[in-house]
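Tokens help. Our protein:
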Amino acid sequence: MGTRMEVAQLESRMNAEDYRKLQNLFLDFSGASRSLSRIQFIDLAWSSVGHGSKEEYGFLFDSVVLSQERSGLLLDSDTSKEKECIDWGGLCSFLLLELSNKFKNSKTVSAPCWKPPRTLTCPHRDPVQKVLYLQSSGQYLTVSKGGNVGLRDVEDMSLLHTHRLQNSTVAPKDLWVTDVVLLQNVDKSQIAVGFTSKEVCFYDFVCEKTFSCKCKLQGLNFTPWCLDYWVDPCNPDQAVLTIGDIGGWVSALYFTSAQIFLFERFSLRTDSDSADIILWDDLAKGKHRSCYTVTHQAHAPGWVRKVRYLGSLEAFVSCSIAPQSSMVIGWRDKESTSLRITSYSTKGGVWDVDFHIGLGLLATAGVDHHVLLWNPYVTSEPVCALGGHTSPVIAVCFLQTKQQLLSYSKDKVLCLWDVSSQLCTHRLAGVFPNIQGDTHPFLFLNEECQHLVLSFNSLLLLLESKREEKKTCSHEHPVTCVLYNSRFRQVVSSDSASSVIFWLTDTGQKVKQFHRCHGDAEISTMALDGTQTRLFTAGADGEVKVWDFNGRCLHRMNAGLGRAVRISQVLLLKRSILVMGWERNLTVFRLHSFLQSTVEPCEWKGGLEHRGAVLCAAFQPPQTLVTGSYHGEIIVWNSSTEKALRKLWPHDEGEDCKKQQEDSDSCDAITRLFFIPGRASVTTAGAADLVSCGGSGTVRLWSTQRGRLVGQFTAHEGELGSIVMAVSPCGEYLTTADRKGTVKIWDVKYYCLTPGEGVNKELPKLLSSFHPHLDHVTHLEMCLHGDKLLLLSASSDCSLALSYLPGETVGLFGQSDPWCLERPGTPQPQQETERDQSDRGRQKNTGLEGMRSPLASSETNVNQGHDSPAERGQLWIKDQKMAKRDRRETKVVTRGTLFS
């Protein structure tokens, strides 16, 4: 009989085409969905897929059925396997669940990288009982068994000051501190200290050099052994001091005006050095209106080893080494003054307990060598047991910012656990001091400073983890699009959280940011007008918005007609704007329609020519428009008449009809189209002038004049899904990128320039391949910045990268150390000609020349310092000539222009 491992191997051996075959099995002759029995599924899958054994498909079927039973999808779990059926949705749900579990289990858990441990010697010889972190002053406060207090600097752990606590109740030689807590919400810095003299004393330390006892809580029945102090984060006046004693009792003091005073004073002090005496009986009888008490005997006759008040649960949790009452929770009941008690038993009792607020789990340090994780509401058994220690576990501590847990055992072994996988990810031993005698060290964790302090009698051991290098993120969310603004010499990027950020190209620093441009809707793509002063953003809400660079929304284009649609591209033509991505037709906006703030679409005269949704388009002057669809066909249009001229197919049309699939990862889907600059003069000879890419990792080059495929090559593995690409302004370089973050630079200067009889399938010269990103590259842009050819790449790993061509990464936008591009020099004559032609072509084609913003001149001054005086003069003369031409052309346009 096989195992689940065999099924996992079968699933890993199957590719996308195999799963398409499986999907077709769940369709009847009419195309409707159907379910399959076990015998049907095994026979059909085995014969259709072509590999794998029948036994493996049987195990796959049984696993799907079992997952459906667990999720309650099968109403009758007693039905025999012969009558059980699965459908395509059930199979997909099971595969997604398996993939999710694989991903969770394969994630690397970050283990701390410890610096060399430091041993800190205290000036006294008695054991250290507690370490507290004073956040206001950035210091550690240590208190020993004999009442010796030390203040240490948090940076270098140097000893700043020492003091000895005074308690007039007992002689100095008999003074024994059991526990200490910090009262962080009290106006004056104050600590509460438990003593074996059956009292809790409250000390002020305003100047941090003198500790004066202000009041004493006396009359306790048993010695207080452990303390806890909780403050309501929403109301600092509300606080709870919890006391666990050696008689097994848990007592709590509820303070209602802690920021003003803890206890009421009924008599004046006769001595300025004397402390107010607060009797427990007076508190229990309600004589102090600012404080009331709650008690319950949780662990009699055992000692309470640790006590905590959990504000999120409104409950007290305590532990003891008594097996029958290893952990006890006292739940507050608003309708009663008494507590509802639940007990949890273990084999040997519990030394320590901690609570993770985010996970809602309790962890116990067991005498039986186990760390147990508990659901507070389930008393019968723990959620899981973490086994790995070989001696009693005496301390546990959750990392609240992570799903991790620290545990320490008597044999001086420290373990770090990943709670989600229940695995020990780090084990530390052999670094702790060898102290003679029965020591009971405590563990103190400061996540903010990444300090872990352990006590060994009078010694303190500091473990400091090296800070993780923070990953540079240009955006807080995945980056969806990037553009280069040649007018302002800036980079513009958008993300899935509807933010737009402007960056300095020369340094990578942020200039400004527009938040929530489309509310909560993702920005899928962007575009710039010919003047580079207007920004178009397309949101998943179905709208395209037009912005100036001051963050004002000038127009709202209702592309989706009120529906939420996925817009893949916005293309600006001379007299219209095309929006596409979700339907077979093009959505067009005429420039004469931009009279109001909200613009409605017009009818595209060309009608329906594509068989699938139009995903991308490209334009070449004077009137050649090409569009690519999900099903792989490319249509060449006359942009003036909006009539289709010819169709381009990657296969023969008859073959293509068989290949088309109905999933979003169609291998022939076209996601990017670009005309190759500089090839307009050779297209009549059949040279390739158009390049496309899409879902199979394949790049194809086309001749739009002859309507044929000239060349194609596989740039990236087809199993990686769709790729993106960009073409350099000079037409020499082609850049492609995939879902793994790999970017490749190809030399296409002479590629498919001389067409042959068949399709050229040779690879062009690969100039470089590099990984500027860790995840899916979503958009590429190549631009000429001064005399430098640059590559901009956006990724779903929230980063935006700048690279030199042909492939040297400069850095990530927003990184802590700004880069410094060399001062843009005077372009070479060839580059200057190419840039001028590119600029003129862009402005001429968009038809938006005469609609410059009056704000543009003031904004461009920011970046004019990059040019020499001679260049600025030449650019100014050229701008003046263009402005005159613009004014002449705009006389035929109505006064209600697009950007009025």
Summary: The chain is about 15% helix and 35% strand. The CA atoms of residues 580 and 586 lie 6 Å apart. Confidence is low (pLDDT under 50) at residues 1-8, 72-82, 653-665, 823-900.
